[in-house]
Amino acid sequence: MGGETKKTALERVVGLYKSTKPAIKYGAWTLSVVAVLALGYLFFSLSYLDRVYPNVVIGSNQFQGMTREQLTTK
Questions:
Q1: Cα(64)–Cα(74) distance, integer angstroms
Q2: Is pTM, for the whole model, over 0.70?
Q3: Integer CA distances (angstroms), 45 to 16, 49, 54, in order
Q4: Is there a contact between 50 and 56 (Cβ–Cβ < 8 Å)?
């Protein structure tokens, strides 16, 4: 209690990455990588909302980037 300073939230998070315990250190890095991948997937999914994903081909017809209305007319 004597002379202890409270750490901010950012200092605590940075402390996880600098931890000497491998389980905590690698767990923090793993969680970071999973979060970045999840955000990338979310961005990709939202950018193709209501549209066909890239490289969708049936026979000689390419459907990439088309909307529902364009698909029904084709």
A1: 13
A2: no
A3: 31, 6, 12
A4: no
